[in-house]
Amino acid sequence: MGTVGAHHLLGRPDEGLAILLVGPDYGGMRQMAELAGIEARDAGRLQTADARMLRTGVMISGRSLVLIGSTVEVEGLLDRSAFGPWLTSLAYAVDRVVYAGSDTAVMVHPQAPGAWTEVRHGLVTHHRAPDAMALPELVTAP
Question: What is the pLDDT of residue 16?
Answer without folding.
Answer: 93
